[in-house]
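How a chain folds remains the central question behind the approach discussed here. For one protein, we set the task of working out the structure tokens from the amino acid sequence alone. The sequence in question and its structure tokens are set out directly beneath this paragraph.

_____
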Amino acid sequence: MIQKKQYYHSYQPLFRFSDWELFGYEAFFRCESFTPEALFTSPLEQDLMFELDTVSIYEAIMSYARSMTSAPKNLFVNILPSTLLHPSLPSFLEKLYATNSVPSRYIVFEINEAEEIADYRAFGEAISRLRRAGFRIALDDVGKGVASLRRIVEVEPDYIKLDRYFATNLSRSPKKQRLIQLLVTYCQDHTYLILEGIETPEDLAAAKVLGVDIGQGYVLGKPAALQQGNS
């Protein structure tokens, strides 16, 4: 699949609630033969998983760069914890830095909850390496896995992306509203709070009223191929 390039990326927009401006895109890996979940949760050998993840990251950024006709928006790309801990990460970042035309400050690496982190010290060093190169960090699917709170404290992400569970029926759930309000308070002045999976105008309105910074979901835009001039 990798050798024959039987894959592509779709890009879903994110919008800033303060002014409804386009804030950026999240890149989603797509393949005709497999679902992304089947690929990235399969028991692949470590080096093969690293290759798959870094190919996805590299091609997502390169495709985005080719679509740009003006100043770039933020691009969110997923990365596995095992990729961050892989010994070949520094050489991959050097390649990315040398060939990428998108300024690193516009690239946000989303760390997902698909894997446990065995070595938090090495994980922290990898995060620091990304930040020294100018990239920013997001925690993805916060609230879905058991390690979310620890990662928020130890990673100090630039962005917290709440799992789509919290967007579903948000307008009718006082419990979800109270929890989001707590996170809004925690994030003030140092972290952007993003709610993904918003699918109705009512839940979109509730998220804005609660003070969420950025929204993502079908009500705002579905994942699609980037066309010339999208960014």
The chain has a mean pLDDT of 88. The first strand starts at residue 7 and ends at 16. The longest helix spans residues 46-67. The beta strands are 7-16, 21-31, 74-79, 107-111, 136-142, 159-162, 192-195, 214-215.
